[in-house]
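Pilot study result, target chain (112 residues):
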Amino acid sequence: MSNLSEKELQNLKEQLEKEAGELEAQFGVVSKTPEMGSDVESDFSEEADEAEELSNNLGMQDTLKSRLQDIEAALDKMAQGKYGKCEKCGMDIEPEVLKANPESRLCKMCKA
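Predicted structure:
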C-alpha cells in the first residue's frame, strides 16, 4: 500500500464514498429521458431543444459512469490493500496526487 497513514487513508475512503453517492444521485437525474414533445402543433425549435438536452444527458451519463467506475476501482483497491500504486509503473502514487484526486490510477511521472 502507499505511504499514507491510516487516518489519511480513512479520510480518502470517506471522500470517495461521499463522491460516489453524489455521482449516483447525479446519474439518476441525467438518466431521466426528457419528455419529447408530442404536440401535434409542436414547433421544431422545441423538438430541437429536447433532442439537444437528450444528447447532453447521454454525454453526462458517460462521464459520470466513468468517474464512478474509477471511484469503485479505488475503493476495491483499498479493500485489497493495493491502493495508491501506479497502474503503469507500480510505484507509489504521491500523497498529494491522491489527496487532489483520490481515484487516481497513475503517479505524476506516468501522467506526464
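One observation from the pilot: The radius of gyration is 20 Å. A full batch analysis is planned for the follow-on phase.
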